[in-house]
Amino acid sequence: MGQTLPKPALRPFLAADTPVLAAIFTAAIEQLTGDDYSESQQQAWASSAADEEQFGKRLASELTLIAMLQNSPVGFAALKGADHIDMLYVHPSAAGQGVASMLCEALEKLAGGRGAKALTVDASDNATEFFAKRGYVAKQRNTVTVNGEWLANTTMQKSLADGATPGGAT
Ligand SMILES: CC(C)(COP(=O)(O)OP(=O)(O)OC[C@H]1O[C@@H](n2cnc3c(N)ncnc32)[C@H](O)[C@@H]1OP(=O)(O)O)[C@@H](O)C(=O)NCCC(=O)NCCS
Questions:
Q1: Rounded to an integer, what distance in angstroms lies between the CA atom of residue 8 and that of residue 17?
Q2: Residues with Cβ < 8 Å from 128, sequence gap 6 or more?
Q3: Of 4, 44, 107, 111, whose CA is between 20 and 30 Å from 83?
């Protein structure tokens, strides 16, 4: 009661963060997506981080930001190319505290500052409401294979035409 939650700090990814981010990725999928995906779909999705070397390469090849709370990573987001959010994951213990909002806002500002007119994301079913609240609009329904399992997601897009509008729907 009355407890003020500390505000996360953001910093860029370092190679040494890979194991912690792989653990956040796995925990987020296992604990936050069960309403929308079956156990075998969750396992297939989470196994994308099983090969840490490959996962580290993916993180390093993108613009990856990490949210830190009390000096520990609690979430991360990665921008692929100029205008696509490839990853956004928050540890279940830190969910619902605005961590993803902060990460997403930072990527929107960075992409907008680099001249992107819009950002896209292939949002998992559990995350579509999160992105809709930030002004992303559903464009297309997809079904993709991930490690042998079919998973549905939705391509969503947010216009950055007026510069990234922090936190607001356009
Ligand atoms: C989706 C996810 C990143 C959200 O992280 P988070 O830090 O809990 O999100 P925030 O606290 O910033 O939430 C911001 C708003 O979105 C809403 N929201 C977040 N997750 C939601 C969900 N699963 N369903 C409905 N609304 C959600 C919050 O209620 C909040 O609304 P408010 O501003 O009205 O209070 C996190 O649940 C997650 O890691 N999920 C599993 C991995 C995943 O699917 N990632 C997306 C891949 S594209």
A1: 17
A2: 138, 154, 156
A3: 44
Ligand 1: atom nearest CA of 101 is: 12
Residue showing tokens 């196994």: 47
Q: For the chain, how long is the longest CA-to-CA vector? A: 47
Top pLDDT among 166 and 22 is at 22
Q: What is the Å distance from ligand 1's center to 40 Cα?
A: 22
Report the alpha-carbon distance of residue 85 to residue 79 in Å, rounded: 5
For residue 170, name the pLDDT band (cuts at 50, 70, 90): very low
Two tokens, residue 13: 């990814």
Instruction: State how far the alpha carbon of 71 is from the alpha carbons of 9, 12, 60, 86, in Å.
Output: 9, 14, 21, 24
Distance 83 CA to ligand 1 centre (A): 20
pLDDT for 7 = 87
What residue owns the CA closest to ligand 1's atom 25?
A: 129
Report how far ligand 1's centroid is from the alpha carbon of 99 (Å). Answer: 9
At 161, is the pLDDT very low, low, confident or very high (cuts 50, 70, 90)?
A: confident
Which residues' Cβ are closer than 6 Å to ligand 1? 28-29, 32-33, 88-90, 95-101, 121, 123-124, 126-127, 129-130, 133
